[in-house]
Specification:
There is one protein chain. With 345 residues, the chain is α+β, with helices and mostly antiparallel strands. The chain has two domains: 10-264, 3-Layer(aba) Sandwich (Aminopeptidase); 267-342, RNA polymerase II/Efflux pump adaptor protein, barrel-sandwich hybrid domain (OB fold (Dihydrolipoamide Acetyltransferase, E2P)), CATH 2.40.50.100. Helices cover 19% and strands 32% of the residues. The protein has six helices and 19 strands. It has helices at residues 71-82, 100-105, 129-141, 175-185, 203-209, 227-243; strands at residues 10-11, 19-32, 38-53, 58-63, 90-95, 147-152, 158-160, 163-167, 189-193, 213-218, 260-264, 271-272, 279-283, 290-291, 296-301, 311-314, 319-325, 329-330, 335-342. The strands form two sheets. The protein has a 15-stranded mixed sheet that branches. The chain has a four-stranded antiparallel sheet with strand order 16-15-13-18, with no helix packed on it. The longest helix is centred in the C-terminal third of the chain and has 17 residues, at 227-243. It is globular.
């Protein structure tokens, strides 16, 4: 694909060619001197792999929308090295570091424009760098596929109970397909969200506009890499690819785990700190634990007045702990736990 009227990002790859191709999308950047004047151009390299073998479904695999979420990037890099063209029936496009500037800088958002890729769709071919990447994904990649699997983790400040995630489809008749994806992925926890956090500006919004089925993950977080989450999720990705028919044979013999289905509660039912003075949060519960309304989930201890009684943090709603705040230093308005409830159709 050369530069087209649809996008200013270019690549030497033919996205529709048969076989396995490895290369880059090139995101054009202006270079400025110290006075701020343009002195030339460079590009940011976004790694991409395409695998095509005859007719069949199309799948986009993504990670690195947020640069400091690591498990998905590792899973897709391993898959890139293992997949062969003869394994595929149809088309697979892999973006292991979709927001390449954020990946390079080891940041959630791009250092070029502070852009959060998962809040930039549908993007803009003439916009800031992150908007250009979002536009490329929606206009050039999603239009070529039937499924998009987007691998996320918690950021530096959040750790998730590892789970696969689908949003409730706008078409009720497609709910069964979404649940089938969760069960094929086969993680111990599957989460159904009623509304995407980013709405139409997130990848899920782009997928709905392009009639592409979507599944994402949350695989740990906290600035580290969860060995257990990678082990479960990489086999889940392999099962998904075979489930949707884009691989000719199963890539793993490991069966899916039984999947407990949860729905995320509304944000007003999360558990928040409600003390005006910042202190150290001591949690009493952890990921996967069930809490009841009115339960004390932890205490905030005040380092400036160590003799003061600690402030309890009370759950206003019951549910299962889906994710937790990592930094111990906590104050008014900080979310310490996100909850999920058992899903019923």
């Amino acid at each position: 694909m050369d530069t087209t009227p649809n996008t200013k990002i270019w690549t030497d790859l033919d996205l529709d060619a048969e076989g396995k191709q490895i290369g880059y999308f090139r995101l054009p950047l202006a270079v400025h001197d110290r006075s701020g004047d343009d002195v030339g151009y460079s590009f940011e390299a976004i790694p991409v792999v395409t695998i095509r073998n005859g007719e069949g479904p199309g799948v986009l695999l993504m990670a690195g929308s947020h640069g400091n979420e690591y498990e998905g990037q590792i899973i897709l890099m391993k898959l890139i090295r293992e997949l062969r063209a003869e394994d595929v029936r149809g088309r697979i496009i892999i973006l292991p570091g979709a927001n390449a500037p954020a990946v390079r800088a080891d940041r959630r958002n791009s250092p070029l424009d502070d852009g959060n890729l998962n809040r930039k769709f549908p993007g803009d071919p003439d916009g800031d760098p992150t908007s250009m990447i979002a536009h490329l994904i929606e206009s050039e990649l999603l239009t070529r596929v039937d499924y998009a699997f987007d691998l996320h983790s918690g950021s530096l400040s959040i750790e998730y109970l590892p789970c696969a995630v689908v949003a409730r489809p706008s078409d009720p008749d497609r709910m069964g397909d979404a649940l089938d994806l969760l069960r094929a992925f086969g993680m111990p926890t599957g989460m159904i969200i009623e509304h995407s956090t980013g709405g139409n500006r997130a990848l899920i919004g782009a997928c709905r506009r392009q009639n592409v089925q979507h599944l994402s993950t949350e695989l740990g977080g906290g600035g580290g890499v969860s060995r257990a989450a990678i082990d479960i999720a990489e086999h889940g990705v392999m099962r998904l690819l075979h489930h949707v028919g884009v691989t000719r044979r199963p890539l793993t013999e490991r069966p899916p785990l039984d999947c407990r289905l949860l729905k995320r509660v509304p944000s007003w039912d999360y558990i928040y700190a409600e003390t005006s003075e910042r202190g150290l949060f001591e949690p009493f519960v952890g990921l996967g634990d069930r809490v009841e309304a009115g339960q004390t989930t932890g205490l905030i201890h005040f380092t400036t007045a160590p003799w003061r009684e600690p402030q309890p943090v009370i759950a206003k709603s019951g549910g299962v702990i889906l994710c937790r705040r990592i930094p111990a230093r906590t104050g008014l308005g900080d979310c310490v736990f996100v909850l999920g409830k058992d899903w019923t159709s």
